[in-house]
Amino acid sequence: MNTPLAPHYKKPLWETPFAERARALQQRDSYVPWAGYSTVDVFTTVEQEYFAIRNATTLFDLTPMVKYRIAGPDAERYVNRLVTRDIRKLKVGRVSYVVWCNDAGHLIDDGTVFRIAEHDFRICTAERQLDWFMDSAIGFKVEIEEVTSEIAALAVQGPTSCFVLKRLGLEGVEQLKPFEWRNLSAAGRPVMVSRTGFTGDLGYELWMRPEHALGLWDDLMDAGQSRGIRPIGSQALNMARIEAGFLMPNVDFISAEHTIRLNRDRSPLELGLEWLIDFDKPHFNGRRALLEENRVGPKRRLVGLDVAGNKPAHGALLYSDEAGLKEVGHVTSAMWSPTCKRNIALAMINTPHEGLGSTVWADVYLNRELMWERRMLRSQVVERPFFAPARRRATPPNDR
Amino acid sequence: MSSVRPDSADVIIIGGGHNGLVCAATLARAGQSVLVLEAAEHVGGMAITRRFAEGFKVSAAAHLFNQMPLSLVRDLNLKHHGLAFAATDLPTIGLSPDEAPLRMGDLDALNVRSEADARAYAPFDRRMNRFGKLIHAILASTPPRLGTTLWEDKWALAKMALKLRLLGRKEMRELLRIIGMNAYDLFEDEFQTPVLKGVLGFDAIVGSNFGPRAPGTVLTYLYRRAAEVSADSSTFVQPIGGLGTVTQALARAAEAAGARIRTQAPVARILVENDHASGVLLESGETIVANTVISNVDAKTTFLNLLGTEHLDTGFVRRIDHFRSAGMTAKLHLALAKRPNFTGVKPEWLGGRLVLSPSLNELERAFNPTKYQSVSATPALEITIPTIHDSSLAPTGQHVLSSVVQYVPYSIKGGWQTHRAALTTQLIDLLDQHAPGLRDSVVAAELLTPEDLEKEFRVTGGHWHHGDLAFDQFYMVRPVPGATQYQTPLPGLYLCGASSHPGGGVMGLAGRHAAHRVMSKSP
Description:
The complex is a heterodimer of chains A (400) and B (523).
Chain A: H1 19-25, E1 30-34, E2 37-42, H2 46-55, E3 58-61, E4 66-71, H3 75-82, E5 95-101, E6 107-117, E7 120-125, H4 130-136, E8 143-146, E9 152-157, H5 161-168, E10 181-186, E11 189-194, E12 203-208, H6 213-223, E13 230-231, H7 234-244, H8 287-296, E14 300-307, E15 317-319, E16 327-337, E17 342-350, E18 359-368, E19 371-382
Parallel strand pairs in A: 3-13
Antiparallel strand pairs in A: 1-2, 3-9, 4-7, 4-8, 5-6, 6-7, 9-12, 10-11, 11-12, 14-17, 14-19, 15-16, 15-18, 16-17, 18-19
Helix pairs in contact in A: 2-7, 5-6
Chain B: E1 7-14, H1 18-29, E2 34-37, E3 49-53, E4 56-59, H2 70-75, E5 85-90, E6 92-95, E7 102-103, H3 107-113, H4 115-139, H5 151-165, H6 169-178, H7 183-190, H8 194-205, H9 217-230, E8 236-239, H10 244-256, E9 260-262, E10 267-273, E11 276-282, E12 287-295, H11 299-307, H12 314-322, E13 329-336, E14 353-356, H13 360-367, E15 380-384, E16 399-406, H14 416-434, H15 438-441, E17 442-448, H16 450-457, E18 493-495, H17 509-521
Parallel strand pairs in B: 1-2, 1-12, 2-9, 6-14, 12-18
Antiparallel strand pairs in B: 3-4, 5-8, 6-7, 10-11, 11-12, 13-16, 13-17, 14-15, 15-16
């Protein structure tokens, strides 16, 4: 690995190849650690950045996203045994959103798989997985390599993002369908572009060699000037992902490899990810346990909630009755959605209280100038995603 | 060929060692059609008698018989099928360069060396026997699983707790005090005579990867006592014709019950259809169909090679991969032109079990170099001269010496090719110190290191228990969680070998328990 990075014991938090530009634009000195890197939480204000996602073009540095290269004659069989989807159907040039489970059918993490070539895959994931991936390789002819620091990555998301990328010179980018990737180039810099993202909006992710990172950033900022381009931090991204109904590890679920207490693991069935499971493909990790869980039905499910009022129900316990006698679940993510104009939440609710249209009561505590007030807010189980504009799928995207 | 219907059976058993044969006989007697597939030319696994030099035969791996339950011998009518003993009640004799040989259990002789030891021995022996009986209940049953709601699991746990309580408060406390201890401390507490402690220590560690100071070696000692309880005999027995006679009798018993046995039929793969074992593919390319496949092969080979990890979950594979299965025990076979003469060993003892383990410290020292992929100059030995009782094993007037060599690591620095000859010479020299003149009477010698045992008997690591008997690979968690109770994560695939509870030794209990488990699961 040609890593120019100092060992972690000398520098506990690394900087990404974009750090120099991020620092220059950073007005709040607001950083958060992410997978061993220092990343920006907020550049200017969360609101400004959030509205740029929904109305303009945003840059988000996702270099810390952990990336693995999986290659070898058994690569397809290996990935197919690792994840719950049928990866044999994934063609070269396509990306797939996947989850992987332990033996008990509990979620370890989610991520995206890129099929780079017939026998060459890339898995991108929020947390390090080398231990699990290596142990999963016993009996398979594959090589697994972490390539996180070899690839700089930038999410370019928002309704004007396609326009900006075209102006950057990425020829044919408008032809990319959702979950496709292509090797393109901009001003002589090779860039792998995938139509993927974490905002639920029109958007792309750019993957490049670290030495091209700063040049590309500069060109992007130039190309996007007329379309309101701005860098965003993880807070704004988190708002967009809740509206899109996407799961955040360690927020909406804890990796089954990290939980300590009993019954804190979550299965993909509980997380509403049954559409990712293909029971008809050959054996995969957790298959027997998931079949059994599917037979008896999951004990709880992650659902979308529409909460009364406008106060986010952060971490609220949920009750089946207004009096709060019977607890049936809890909120994992919550926000006031500026775009939907709704008070939304993701919540884990025990069956049978989780059905679409069911009513539960959120126990919300409001701090009003140091005085706590308790509210039982009527909440309804609703469809997610909360926000799913047609532009996220349109190909070619509207060219503005 | 394609028009020929493939061979089939209700049950295929992979591996014709003693557990596979016990399992086959038990299932066949219950009316199932059973096919045993053995890779080698003869059945028997690690309990065979074979030629090792022109005119000389030996029990190639296991060489004494004292652990198979009498009930099994009776149920399978093994005496009718040819099992006969050349000698029973073989004495155990402790050898030492510093003391005269000591016959274990001879209190008069012990009294001469230490009155305290002579006084302490009988109560100690009775207590160990009592504990052995309790552990025997563990051996004699299929382990329960924890965390299930099945009444049979709960009942088994309750029975175990009750048996423990019925020892009485004092004895229960004593058992719980010592069971996690090391053999060294326990025997040092009880006795003074070095060779007595040496032999007891040897019994605690033989076949294992532990020195006598390793925690858990009291457990392995009690385990051995338990197996003796099971066999209803605390002494050793030598079958006529060696240990091969036992497995030959088992094979006949299985065939008499209707089981078929095919030798030279190595299995390449266990076949899977719709997430259920569906048969096997032989190395010859032949497919054999079955509803149930039982593997007598060690757990690592079964899951990692024959089944393939693609049919298993990562966590399970991880545990199988970590199953400690490197052997630490070698086997030395000598063809001798004349009867050896061990100093101080009475003629009537020579046909017994001679244990060279002069003291606990010597034993620990013999263990030490193995930590660094090396071997001690004075390993511990368990010597038998089977030709004393059974002249069929060697030309008239000549003899066979068979010795277990404890603390010979699986891998050695520089590889066994460069060390085997030197270690053989070294062992002959060691024996010559105790039996002067032995060296000059050696006609032929064969040393089977764990690596050789692995190759000859197709056992990963060449471990005679398939994997260490230790708290973390024991009883309810043997070989690993997910493959206990003889079942595996793959429906229709079972284990019946030493990898499963209660482990190795020519006991046959794993095979019997597995057969019962298969029958209880059959529709």
